[in-house]
Automatic annotation (TrEMBL):
Protein name, per record: Pyridoxamine 5'-phosphate oxidase N-terminal domain-containing protein
A GO term, aspect molecular function: oxidoreductase activity, acting on the CH-CH group of donors
PANTHER family noted in UniProt: HEME OXYGENASE HI_0854-RELATED (PTHR35176), PYRIDOXAMINE 5'-PHOSPHATE OXIDASE-RELATED FMN-BINDING (PTHR35176:SF4)
Matches recorded under Pfam families: PNPOx_N (PF01243)
Coiled-coil annotated residue ranges, if any: none
Organism the protein comes from: Saccharothrix espanaensis (strain ATCC 51144 / DSM 44229 / JCM 9112 / NBRC 15066 / NRRL 15764)
């Protein structure tokens, strides 16, 4: 991380910056995330999914023919969000970055283990060439390393920005 700053316009001017270690922990512990991509015609696309935080990046997967995979193929710039979905209390998080395919078998095996450790045996994933086994083909795996991230605290209200 290269910098952390707060913007007092979006909260209590005396609110301290949220430490990246706290934001990273909350991001890793979240169960549901929202992925925002851009369709080839420029319209936005947002969808909920599960993901894991591993090796200082968020990792997600999607079927090779799904809209999000097709969008990322055209424009790999994405936003991944998660949070507490409450007005008072908690921390909402936004990670901006570039979705990069993960194809290395060792990395895929480590990620499959991370998914199962986090979500349980219902999310056992078998590694195949190019991703995870999927009944409809291959599930592509993407790594999104943060370029910029935001934390929106709600007790007190605050906005922290981290640049990497």
């Amino acid at each position: 991380m290269t910098s952390t700053d707060t913007d007092p316009r979006y909260g209590d001017p005396d609110a301290p910056a949220t430490p990246w270690t706290e934001a990273r922990r909350k991001f890793a512990e979240a169960e549901v995330y929202w992925l925002s991509t851009v369709r080839p015609d420029g319209r936005p696309h947002v969808t909920p999914l599960i993901a894991v935080w591993h090796d200082e990046a968020v990792h997600l997967c999607t079927g090779q023919d799904e809209r999000k995979a097709r969008n990322v193929a055209e424009n790999p710039n994405v936003v991944v969000t998660t949070g507490d979905n409450a007005l008072h209390g908690g921390l909402d998080l936004v990670v901006e970055g570039t979705a990069e395919r993960v194809t290395d078998p060792g990395a895929l095996a480590a990620l499959a283990a991370a998914w199962e450790a986090k979500y349980g045996p219902d999310w056992h994933l078998d590694v195949v060439e190019g991703g995870f086994a999927n009944p409809h083909g291959v599930a592509l795996v993407f790594r999104v390393e943060p370029v910029t991230a935001f934390g929106f605290g709600k007790d007190p209200y605050s906005q922290t920005r981290w640049r990497f």
